[in-house]
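Quick bug: DUF445 domain-containing protein output formatted oddly.
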Amino acid sequence: MLDYISHLWHVFWLRPDHWAVLSIVPVTAFVTWIHVWMALRMVFYPIHFIGFHIGKLPFGWQGIVPRKAGRISGIITDNTLKKIGSLSEFLEAMDPNEMADIIGTQINADLEYLIDEVMMDRNAVLWENLPYSIKRRIYEHAHQQLPEVLHALVIDLTDHVEELVDMKKMIVHQMENDRRLMVSMFLKVGQKEIDFIWHISALIGCGFGLIQMLIWFVVPWHWTVPFWAAIWGLLTNWIAIWMVFNPLHPHYVRYPQFFRRTKHHGFPWLVPIVPKIGQFNIQGAFIKRQEEVSDVFAKVVTEELITLKTIMTEMMYGDHKEKTRQMVKRHINQITDTPLVRTTLQLSLGPTEYARLKTDLIDRSIEITMVPVSDPAFNASRAQKIFTMFRDRIRNLTPYEFQNLLRPAFKEDEWILILLGGVTGFVAGVIHLFVAFL
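Here's what came back:
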């Protein structure tokens, strides 16, 4: 047997193209590694379009994720986020009573300044000449009423958040206005899968290189070099992406194990162990990490996407802001329409100016409410309250539902990435043909 193998090797070595044939495997592996890296970069970068337009026809490129941020985020919201929970659940978990106390404490400190500012805008001469005793009574009345009014308002907004905020529109609007956030979210959630695709591509390329080398012995035609390189380019990108999400469900295979990977994943990567029967789970690389990804995704969503600030901003300034204003007006009027305040201000300002004053007060109340709501520390404290709930619900998603956290990024225009592999493979094959075979 050894003599036969030695004879084959000797015959092969006498071929004039033996170095060219041997180069097929490393060249195929390297080219595959490079074009898969290029394809992965093109999924996310550049953030903004680079190129030019002739009329309405674009010539250039923008990353698939930032280019289709609205559509992709809409798919993720419909397929995953809405199944995890509703906005009312998230707000309820943030503890509305505590929110009302914190917001109330901060607003209460600036309440007199707020009243002065609104009154000075409306009638500066009158307010400056109004006896301090009357001003003091208005201040004290507002301070007494504010905690109860604000508490009722926060509870009311929480109860009606589904009517005031469309989760899908809120997230789509946020992603379209900050496409870098969209890319950052995908990279935080799927960086390990992206690295897996990149590195496994070289191994797949080696396998295809061996096949191509064997084919060359049977069909040593020069045109087959770029032809097969293009085929391997197409297949490598498709297989690499497929392996991230498939199979959906675990398939355990038993095998004899003689080595184990080191925990720190540094050199040496493998260490010998006492032989035993090991078990390997054949499952999509992303699906395998559901528990780990749940922590990362929950942190990203609760700290950057579905935050108290984003919900309140959409509520106060979004499509249903008029409904919110009516709700705020109903509660603020409990302060301005009491006999003491109404009589004092109507006599001082007149009915028309008094009505305008109430409108101004509502506008300023909304603005001043957004100040504590926008505070990073306040948002972080609310995020902590819903993190565990969010994480646990992601862990309980089915594999099909879970894959939709990352799958839309690759599914959108996936054919472009696969075609890119074919084109890159063909170009590399032509270069390889002229350098090594001709």
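Actually, after a second look the formatting is fine. The chain has two domains: 20-48+59-247+289-437, 249-282. Closing.
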